[in-house]
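Hi U.,

Before I forget, here's the chain from the pilot set. I'm dumping it here mostly so it's searchable later in email.
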Amino acid sequence: MAKNIAIVLNNGSLNSAVVAALASQSHRTIMLYAQTTPAPLPRSRAAFDQQVAHFKPYREHALAIPYGSPLGAASAAYSADPRQPGSLAPKLVELLPLIAVALRLAAHYQAAALYLGLRVGSNADELAAATEYLQILDELVQLPCRQTDLHVLAPLLELEPWQVVDLGYQVNVPFDKTWSCLDQAPEPCWACAACHARDDAFQHAAKTDPSKIAKNG
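Structure:
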């Protein structure tokens, strides 16, 4: 396989779309959707499919990872939705099974990179912890796993939400093909924490959200 292949872990979100656009600039991409819930999330999966149609990757894969979902009441405290603000550690724990599957796929295709939409912002402590996390993953993959040419990349890591939106406009991201809402209704609710965070990011970036244009158009 060619060494310019990259795996893009994509859940249909805004961050996923920006990362897919960035990866597409220098790699032949393989987009991976991982279902971690017992039942499919129709709007998130639809957003992934729309992004696939837009970016036209070299390959696409959708895998069910049931052990990636919360295991019951005892683990509920450790469950974290990456679209909501919160402690970094639970998010990194939830990423582990997804990254493991993505790395297995990367090894199969002899890919040069695995792209993640992980973002922590400019908080010094969390940024340092997430950077160390990625360095450890890189060393694990390259040394004991002997995937010496494979790198784990998180290009949005230190950006604030409005900066992700601004970057997305620079690389022509199809924001209307992304899903941020915590609900899975036909349309975003624009009332949940994730919708408010998305709205705030577009406002701070002084950009118009195409999803709202499509709704009001």
